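In this section we walk through a basic example: taking a raw amino acid sequence and producing a predicted 3D structure, encoded as discrete structure tokens. The instruction is simple. Fold the sequence below.
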Amino acid sequence: MRALIAVKAGEPTDVLRLESLPVPTPKAGQALIRVKATRIHAGDLHVLRGRYGFSPGFPAVGGRMECVGHIAALGPDTEGLKVGERVVAAVVPAVPGPPVAGTWQEYLVADTRRLLPVPDRLSDSSACQLAVNPLTALLLVTRELDVQPGEWLLQTAAGSTVGRLVIQLSRNLGIRTINVVRRRDAVEEIKVLGGDEVICTEDEDLLQRVAEIAGPVGVRKAVDCVAGPVGAQVSQALAPGGEVVVYGALSTHRQTAPAALTIPLQARSVIYETKAVRGFWLNRWFGTASPEDALRTLSQVRGLVADEVLSIPRGQPFPLERFAEAVSLAEAPAHGTKPLFVFEDGRDEDDR
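The resulting token sequence is shown next.
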């Protein structure tokens, strides 16, 4: 089978090689998946650069997130799924937990407890993107912060993939959102998507605008994907006792020095107003959630996507041979089409 392998840590286009590997054999409790489509995440590229929260060890097949495909074979005494069944494989490595197979290959072996059957009405493009970003949005809003209907939720990077999903989910749940963006031309787009309020840091003061919007009651819950000074302002803008969950650091996207990966919090605000700042990482959630809870939550996400509560934009398909173009698109600054690797018998069908 063909596989896209990183021979060492480094810039993806420098270290990736298209090679031939033997098709693996599933063991008990495992399934062999014939991959049809797999999303290229920014996190996948950070793994290859050696700048993520774990290292797969090199050389390594790329892709450590999610894919869709058909079950080609089951390991001995493995029940609950059928050969030929179409499934999403959530192969996000649990931390702590065992290593997992990369998705940038034609076949992979996965634990059946990480496989979720998907209905035919979901395209390959939607299915191969539902186990990371929609799951993150759901967990942030309903589990990490338990935001209730009528409450305000403040979020940065509102135009990002997760940010847009948070808006859609919040609107469905009756949660009001204050959405922070960098560019003035993004404001109207966020409002059309369903964001209640939008703050543009290009020409608005974040603290002042949050105070004007939320009034005396203030905002007590926030999610941040930017870190740096913006993340610090989000913490400062919260009401006493407020909490911000940090799940990304876009402001430090190209930083390699650990000292630059910071959130410069104001100690007086944190201490005297008893605010909390904590992190969320999907890998660590998989490391602490039971397999049953993880699959149950993935099933909830599948329902939200299938019912069109959460909308996943159609991805742009690339064969493995065009990996340099795909990597370039994955890191393009515009929030447009996301790249997918698709395989010979995989078709990026229109959403049905």
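Looking at the output, two observations stand out. The two ends are 30 Å apart (CA to CA). Residues 291-306 form the longest helix (16 residues). In the next section we compare this with other chains.
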